[in-house]
UniProtKB/TrEMBL annotation:
This is Metallo-beta-lactamase family protein. Residues 299-424 form the Beta-Casp domain. It holds the Pfam family Beta-Casp. The keyword Hydrolase applies. Residues 50-294 form the Metallo-beta-lactamase domain. Coiled coil: none annotated. One of its GO terms (molecular function) is RNA endonuclease activity. Keywords: Hydrolase.
């Protein structure tokens, strides 16, 4: 015979849902065990890739893990959502106690200034490199918002008849500065108490300098629950970065699934794969190589790899133009935190002095210099943002070279469906740039050795750290539905029976 024994979760229950029940055998002494109250709500990156935002609540403490911008929504849909919520957020910003930030990319950090604008008064906890890179990315986003606001409201010679409504998620540099004053840096591998009963530990995740898996530990009366958030999982032996580190066993696991249905195609060392392309496109056939690349992370991996190639191969003197002010600033951050790079990078720097600078490298400081290299007639390599060829200076370079059969556009990462990069990869004969329809005469190539995301094997390896008999639930996030579904099937076959794919706003009591 079983009977119900209840205890309260330190709150005054408003209805029966607030009462916690535990069944116990009536033949045994009745012991009332403390039950830890935790609730997890998925407010972003739920059955989509961007907008990471997860709300973890205990009895009296609320943690927001990541606070990212949602790029999956069109602007009009985003506006409709914000109007319905009467806020950028589906919750009261002032009720959040702490934000934990896995890494700096905008789809994880991009709404932090808006959180402060709407009343958040707590701290943002992250690693020191994440803090530095986030400051750069948020200021870059603020500058973009300011330009769009100027265009909407009219500036200079062009004046609009009336000011248009400012999007709720726009912020300016002042908001970024105010937010960054509340960032608190922590070290990898050290346990920090952020509340009387809540501790956190950050573990290297690869993917980007400073990126972390975060383990949150909640303890009451000697009873402990652990939940881990993967952040974005990197890949082993990636240029510059530490390999993703194993985390301890947890009760609940939140795991990204970006490459849940994909395996990386290239298995060569990055310098071997890139050297082959350079030899074919710039030496055997004197031409120019255009590489769309994200300014933070990807460009640093490319510059480091090019430095290694020029040190180790007897290549002719081919100019390399790095065309992104944000990439230049980010490279300085990588240099500043050299102690957190992998052993190969440290050894290369010890032997050669510089990780990124080499004789043929030229940083382009302004838009005028960027346009001027269209007149450079020698073989060269141009690295510019963005990586998906969606906005940024790269659009100019693609436009100027797409009709040149002696030019090659090399895609080195994932491009979302519908972006210009996606259209190039998928072999479209004509593309439209800035309203012009242009025939594709340039060569289009792709290598994935510089992708910062772990593939399906890497994701499965991360999950397998957990004992399938002990982990209570695995949540898949940060991926397209197809990626999640395939990864879920694989994990189920490995014995992990309770694997969820939460919808936006779906809430779980843990």
């Amino acid at each position: 015979m079983l009977r119900g024994v209840y205890c309260f979760d330190n709150r005054t229950p408003s209805n029966n849902k607030d009462i916690k029940w535990r069944l116990t055998d009536s033949t045994q002494p009745i012991v009332i065990h403390p039950i830890i109250y935790m609730k997890l709500t998925f407010w972003g990156a739920a059955q989509q890739v961007t907008g990471s935002m997860f709300l973890l609540e205990t009895d009296d403490y609320r943690i927001l893990v990541d606070c990212g911008s949602d790029f999956d929504l069109e602007e009009k849909d985003r506006k409709a959502r914000y109007d319905e919520q009467k806020s950028v957020f589906p919750f009261e910003a002032s009720m959040i106690n702490t934000v934990l930030l896995t890494h700096a990319h905008i789809d994880h950090s991009g709404n932090i200034p808006n959180l402060y604008k709407e009343g958040f008064e707590g701290r943002v906890v992250c690693t020191e490199p994440t803090m530095a890179l986030t400051a750069l990315l948020l200021k870059d986003a603020a500058n973009l918002h300011q330009k769009r606001l100027n265009a909407r409201n009219g500036s200079g010679k062009r004046k609009s008849k009336g000011k248009r409504e400012i999007p709720k998620d726009y912020f300016v540099e002042k908001n970024v500065i105010e937010a960054m004053e509340n960032f608190v840096p922590v070290s990898f591998g050290q346990r920090y108490r952020i509340a009387d009963h809540v501790s956190i530990t950050f573990y290297p995740a690869g993917h980007l300098l400073g990126a972390a898996h975060i383990v949150v530990e909640v303890t009451e009366d000697g009873v402990r629950k652990r939940i881990a958030f993967s952040g974005d999982i990197g890949r082993s032996d990636y240029p510059l970065l530490l390999d993703p580190q194993e985390i301890p066993e947890v009760d609940y696991l939140v795991c990204e699934s970006t490459y849940g249905n994909r395996l990386h195609e290239n298995h060569e060392a990055p310098e071997e794969a890139l050297a082959k392309v350079i030899r074919r496109t710039c030496i055997d056939t004197p031409g120019r190589l255009i590489i769309p690349s994200f300014s933070v992370g990807r460009t640093q991996a490319l510059l480091y790899t090019l430095n290694k190639i020029y040190q180790e191969n007897s290549f002719p003197s081919i100019k390399v133009f790095s065309d992104s002010p944000l990439a230049y600033s980010s490279t300085k951050v990588y240099e500043r935190f050299g102690r957190l790079l992998n052993k190969k990078a440290k050894k290369f720097q010890e032997d050669n002095g510089m990780l990124f600078d080499f004789d043929n490298l030229i940083y382009l400081e302004n838009a005028e210099a960027s346009r001027a290299i269209s007149n450079y007639n020698e073989p060269c390599i141009i690295i510019s943002s963005s990586g998906m060829v969606q906005g940024g200076r790269i659009e100019h370079h693609v436009e100027a070279n797409i009709g040149n059969p002696y030019a090659t556009i090399l895609m080195v990462g994932y491009a979302s469906e519908g972006t210009l990069g996606w259209r190039l990869i998928n072999g479209q004969d004509n593309i439209t740039i800035r309203g012009k329809q242009l025939p594709v005469m340039a060569g289009i190539e792709k290598i994935d050795v510089f992708s910062g995301h772990g593939d399906q094997n890497d994701l499965v390896k991360f999950v397998k750290i957990q004992d399938p008999e002990k982990v209570k639930k695995v949540f898949l996030v940060h991926g397209e539905k197809q990626s999640m579904t395939e990864l879920q099937l694989i994990i189920n076959k490995l014995g992990y029976q309770d694997v969820e794919m939460p919808m936006r706003g779906q809430q779980y009591e843990l």
